[in-house]
# Entry
Amino acid sequence: MTNTDALIDVAERRGYRVLWHHGGVKAAWQPHRHAITLRLGMTDTATVCSLAHELGHAHYEDPPGHFGAHELRADRFAAKLLINPDDYRIIEHTYGPHPARLAHELGVTVKVLKTWQTLHESKIAL
# Structure
């Protein structure tokens, strides 16, 4: 399970600043500042998943704004960054296929979990 400090280290090693804000959006990639901003007061899980998503935008050098293809790509980036396939298999074997429980045990949101599952299922289908 990845924590916020570990992801902040990843961001900083890639040359991005991580800043904090009050209120408003959960997180944002600000290419003009080479920075990711995160809202204070979110749960650890929401913070980790939001930061991983914004790292995806930064990685692909997405422009500001919410464009469908960019959002999907950032979601996929976050899912691959945060969920290890071996951990997933062990947790699913232990707890069953229940998305909320799997997400909790993996330390991610249900959205990130379902994105990862969709990626995994599409690889099996190929």
Observations:
- The chain has a mean pLDDT of 94.
- The radius of gyration is 15 Å.
